[in-house]
Write a structure and sequence with these properties.
61 residues; alpha+beta; Ribosomal Protein L30, Chain: A
């Protein structure tokens, strides 16, 4: 499985509630925090929704 490192790079202040909830569901919440997740269709949808707030790096294949 492909794993990605997701890092929050922008604030959720003045963002819609659904974007704030998506960031929280990914395990983020403050600028600079990173999590590693396995890629699946649900995660890809979440990443697309908040792509302007995060940075994505491939960790392993």
């Amino acid at each position: 499985m492909v794993k990605v490192r997701i890092t929050q790079v922008r604030s959720t202040i003045r963002r819609p509630k659904d974007q704030k909830a998506t960031i929280k569901a990914l395990g983020l919440g403050r600028i600079g925090k990173s999590v590693i997740k396995e890629v699946n269709p649900a995660i890809l949808g979440m990443l697309k929704k908040v792509s302007h707030l995060i940075r994505i790096e491939i960790v392993e294949r």
